[in-house]
Amino acid sequence: MSQLFSIAFVIYILSLNMAAIYLIYKRLISSILAGLAIFFFILSVSSTVIVLFLFLTPFTDWFTGLGNLLSIIWFGLLNGCCYILFGTVKWVFSMIRR
C-alpha cells in the first residue's frame, strides 16, 4: 500500500513538472512563479497524502512508508528550488545584457 502512495506522488510531481515546463516554454509564466507554485502544490498535497496514508495503511507499514514519502517530498521541494534558481539566474543574465 505504501508503494502505491509513493508511485502516485511521483506521478503527481512529474505532472507538475510537465505543466511547469509547458507554461514556461509558452512564456505564460516565469520560472520563479512555476517554482513557487510547485512548492505550494507539493506542500499542500503532501500533507493530505500523509494523512490518507496514515489512515489507510496498517501500523507496521507506517515507518517505511513515511520515510519513502518524506524523501519524495524533499525531492519535489528541491525540484521547486531548481525552478526558482533557474528563473533567478535567467533574470540576472537578462539584466546584465541590458
Top keywords for this entry?
98 residues; mainly alpha; 3 helices; 0% strand
Topology diagram in text:
Blueprint: H1 2-25, H2 31-56, H3 62-97
Helix pairs in contact: 1-2, 1-3, 2-3
Note the beta-strand portion. Answer: under 5%
Number of helices: 3
Structural class: mainly alpha
**Which term fits the overall shape?**
elongated
Summarize the structure in words.
The chain has 98 residues and is mainly α. The protein is built from 3 helices and no strands. The longest helix is centred in the C-terminal third of the chain and has 36 residues, at 62-97. The termini are far apart.
Question: How would you sum up this structure in a few lines?
Answer:
88% of the residues lie in helices and 0% in strands.
